[in-house]
Amino acid sequence: MEVYCNLLSPSSVLSSMNATQLQKNIMRRVYYAYALSIAGHSMLWRGIFLGAAAVLLAKWLHVASIFSNFLSVPVGNVPQYIANALLNATTHGEVLMLLTLTTASLVGLSCAYRLWQSVQFERFFTHSPS
Fold it and tell me: What are the sequence ranges of the domains in the chain?
């Protein structure tokens, strides 16, 4: 006598599976869905990129020398000094450092904008009209 299992029938699945096994399967799927929702979130990837960019820029740039150079420049000449420093970095072949700095700045600005939007959204729903 042959026994056929209809995979589309829930009664055959439930009869072959006990309650703890069913609960384990359901919870495993819930954990997978949660992990995928975290892994697919854009702020996670922005944070990972900003962390990697901070490590690379800290490796390539010496922060103490940057501050000492800023302090040696008169206040009115700081924007011109920054433009000249970026131009000199470009002409001396430090393109990867400039790309990392530019991309990290853009990602940082987008993170700040998204956080600002989140705070404004939360204030809209939490403050009651007076």
Answer: 1-40, 42-126
Cβ atoms of 107 and 52 closer than 8 Å: no
Degrees, nearest 5: CA angle 66-58-64:
30
Q: How far apart are CA 30 and CA 76, in angstroms?
A: 58
Distances, alpha carbon 1 to alpha carbons 4, 12, 89, in Å: 10, 18, 81
pTM above 0.85, yes or no: no
Residue 61, φ and ψ in degrees, nearest 5: -115, 145
User: pLDDT tens digit string along 90-114?
Assistant: 898 888 888 888 899 999 899 899 8
Q: What is the pLDDT of residues 3-27, one digit of tens each?
A: 555 555 555 555 567 888 999 999 9
Q: Where are the alpha helices (DSSP H) in the chain?
A: 10-16, 19-39, 42-60, 63-72, 78-91, 95-126
Per the CB < 8 A criterion, the answer to whether 107 and 50 are in contact is yes
